[in-house]
Amino acid sequence: MKHLLATTALILAAGSAHAEGKLSLYHWFEYIPQELLDKFAAEYGVEVTLDTYDSNEAMLAALKAGKLGQYDLAVPGDYMVEIMRVDGLLDSFTPAELPNFGNIAPEWVDVPFDPGREHSIPYQWGATAFSVNRDVYDGPIDSLGVIFTPPDALKGKINVLDSQGEVLALGSIFLGIPQCSTDRAQLQALNDMLLAAKPDWASFGSDTAKDVLVSGDAAAGMIYNGFSAKARAEGANVEYAWPKEGYVVWMDNVVLLKDAPNRDNALKFMNFLLEPENAAAVTNYAAYAAGVTGVEPFLDEAIRTSPENNPPEGARKGQFVQACDEASQKMYDAIWTNLKK
Amino acid sequence: MAGFLPKSGAESTGYRGLVGPLLLPTWVMVGVFLVIPVALMAIYSFLTKEFRGGVIWDFTLAAYDQFFFNRGLFGDEPPSIEWTYIAIFWRSVWQAGVATLLCLAVGFPTAWFIATRPAAQRGVWLFLVTVPYWVNLLIRTVSLKFLLRDNGPLNGSLMSLGLIDGPLPLVNTDLAVQLGLFYSYLPFMVLPIYAAVERYNFALSEAAADLYASRWVTLREIVLPVVRPGIVAGCILVFVPSLGAFLAPDLLGGAKTFMIGSLIDEQFKGSQGNWPFGAAVSMILMTLVMIVLILYARAQAKAERRS
After folding, report:
1. What span, in angstroms and rounded, lies between the C-alpha atoms of A128 and B178?
2. How far does A282 lie from chain B, in Å, by closest CA?
3. Residues 53-92 (A) with a CB less than 8 A from some CB of B
4. What is the share, in percent, of chain A residues with pLDDT greater than 70?
C-alpha cells in the first residue's frame, strides 16, 4: 500500500512538472552535465528535452530544414551566431529579461558577432593555438612559427586541425594579415606560406587532435586549449602555447531561437546558466572557461589553476574566426582546396 | 552482372500474365532507391550554390566549370585545364587499384583454400572470414591505426626483434590507406571467388595434368577462365567502394590530401560547403564507374558469344 502511494505521488509530481511547461534544447553532444539539467528541471518544474548535434553547420542545416520552432535554445559558436543573426533565425531579448545579465564578464558583452548581446549569452569559450610534446621538443613555443615554419625537431611530426576556418585564421594571424582580406598580395602570401609549411605536417585531424599528441603520433599540433588540457590529464607531457602573434578564440553561446515554443522557460534557463555556480558546473564538466564573473569559488582546483585556461600576463588578445562575405570566402575556399589537393 | 547467374531453364509460361504485377516491387526499388536519388543529384549538380550551404534554383554549369577549368586563385585568369580534381581522381583510382590487387592477391588463395576444404568445414571457414566484419568499419579502421602507429605493436615487435632501428613510418602514408581499404573490403573479394571456385570441377585439373599440362598452364588455361567471373565480380565489389572511401584516407592517411570521397564529403559539411559541386563530382564519379561497368559487360557478352 505504501509502495502504491509512493508511486502515485511520483506520478502526480511528474504530472505537475509537466504542467509547468517544457524546455527544448538543441545542444552539442556531451557538453552539459545531466545533473545541471536535472537541477533546473527540479527548481523550475520544467520538463527539459535535449537533442544534440555535432557541428555548427549540422545545427544550422537542421534549423533551416524545418526544425526552427521546435527548439527554444541552441548553442552555436561565435561565427555561427552571426550567420544565424543575419539569417533571422534568432529572437532577441532585453537585459531586463535576464536578471543575471550583469554576470556576463564585461569583455564578453560587446562581442563582434552579437554587439551588446541582444540574442545570446556566453556559454563556454576557449582558445585555439597549438601544443608541443615537451619530451620531443624543449625549444621556445611563443610563436605560431612552431607550426608554420617548424624547427627541425618537429618537422614531419605536426598535426594541424582539419578545419578551414581555424587553419586559415591562425595562418593569417601568423602573417599579421587581417581575416577575410581581399588584398591579393596578402592572400597570395597566405597561400604560399601554407603550401610551404605543408610538407612539414604529418596529418590533418580535428577530432584526433588530442589522440595524436597522447599516442605520440604527433609531437606538436594545433589544438583547442581544453583538448590540450585533456591530453595533459591523460599523461602526455604537452605544453599549450599562447603565441605572441595572437591566437584564435572561439566562444559557444546560448541563443534564443526565433519562434521558440517556450520562450519564458528559455529565458529562465539562460538566466540560470548565468548564475556563477551553474556556469562553473558547466566549466567543471567541459573544462573550458565560462565568460561569467564570479565562477572562481565554484571551480574545481585543477581547472581554476590550469595553464591552458589562464593566459600568461601580457598575452595578446585572441581573435574570433570571422565569417567572411561571399566574395572573399570564395578565395579562402580556393586557398584551402589548394592546400589539400 | 547477369552473366554470373546460372542460365535459367525452359521459360515458364504459367506466370506470363502476372509478370507486370510481380515485377512491381523491383520497379519500386529501382525507382525509389536508384532513379530518384540519382536524378536529384543530377539536378543539384546544375543548380547555383547558395553561400554557406544549400542551393538556389537557378540552372548553371558552374559546378562542372569549376571541375574542369582553372581560373586562378582569384578566379579572373583565362581558363586553363584544372588538374586539381583530375589529380584527386587519379590518386583515388590508384589507391583503390592497389587495394584491389592486394585483395586479389590474398583473397584468391583464401577462397581457393576454403573451397578445397571438405564441404562440412567450408561453412566454418567462411564464417571466420566474415567475423571481423561484424564490427563497425570505423572501429576497425581506428584499430588498424593503433597497430600501425610509430609506437604500436607492429613497429614495437619489429624493433624488439632487431629488424629495424627506428619505427617505420606507416601511419599517414599511402600504404596505410591501401592496407585500410584492403582490410575493409577483403570479404567482397573472397566470397565471389569462393562461389566460383566451389563450382569448379577439379576433374578438369586432373585431366589437364594427365595431358602433361604444368601447374602454371593449368591455372592459366583451365582454372582462371572458369573462375574469372568470380574474380571480376570481386574486383568490382572492392574497387568501386574503395574509390569513394573516405574513412581510411582520413584516419590512416592523415587527411593531407583529398580523395574523391573526402572531396565530396567536404562539399556537404561545414559552412564552406558547395552542394552543386559535390553533386557534380558525384555525377562525374558515377559516370566513370558506369563506363567501366559497361565496358566490362560488353567484354563479358563478347566472351559469352565466343564460347
Report:
1. 33
2. 26
3. 55-58, 60-61, 64, 79-80, 83
4. 94
B269: nearest CB among A57, A205, A338: A57
Q: Scan residues 182-221 of B and list those with Cβ closer than 8 Å to A.
A: none
Could you tell me if A205 lies within 8 Å of chain B, comparing CB atoms?
yes
Q: For the domain with range B26-306, which CATH number is right: 3.40.50.12710, 1.20.140.10, 3.40.50.2000, 1.10.3720.10? A: 1.10.3720.10
Best CATH choice for the domain A2-125+251-304 from the list 1.10.3720.10, 3.40.190.10, 3.10.50.40, 3.50.50.60: 3.40.190.10
Q: What is the distance of C-alpha B71 from the center of its chain?
A: 33
Q: Which of A14, A125, A27, A134 is nearest to A73 (CA)?
A: A27
Question: What pLDDT digit, counting tens, does each position of A122-145 carry?
Answer: 999 999 999 999 999 999 999 999
Residue with cell 536524378: B39
- pLDDT confidence bin for B3, thresholds 50/70/90: very low
> What is the spatial distance between Cα B199 and Cα B196, in angstroms, rounded to a whole number?
5
Task: Work out the minimum CA distance from A165 to partner chain B, whole angstroms.
Answer: 9
Q: 3-class SS at B203?
A: helix
A14 — pLDDT class (breaks 50, 70, 90): very low
Name the residue ranges covered by the structural domains of chain A: 2-125+251-304, 126-249+312-340
A109 CB neighbour count, 10 Å cutoff: 17
Q: Which helix (H) or strand (E) holds A19?
A: helix A2-20
For chain A, the C-alpha Rg in angstroms (whole number) is 22
pLDDT in tens, A141-181: 999 999 999 999 999 999 999 888 899 999 999 999 999 99
User: Could you read off the pLDDT of B194-244 as tens digits, one per residue?
Assistant: 999 988 888 888 888 899 988 898 888 888 888 988 999 999 999 999 988
- A205 and B273 in contact by Cβ < 8 A? no
Tell me the pLDDT of chain B averaged across its residues.
87
Tell me if chain A has a CB within 8 Å of the CB of B172: yes
Cell numbers of B180, please? 585500410
User: Cell numbers at residue A240, please?
Assistant: 599549450
Chain A residues with CB under 8 Å of B260 CB are none
Please indicate if any CB of chain A lies within 8 Å of the CB of B166: no
| Among candidates A58, A217, A341 on the partner chain, residue whose Cβ is nearest the Cβ of B171 | A217
Q: What is the pLDDT of residues B148-173, one digit of tens each?
A: 888 888 888 888 888 888 788 888 88
pLDDT digits (tens, 9 = 90+) for B288-303: 889 988 988 888 888 7
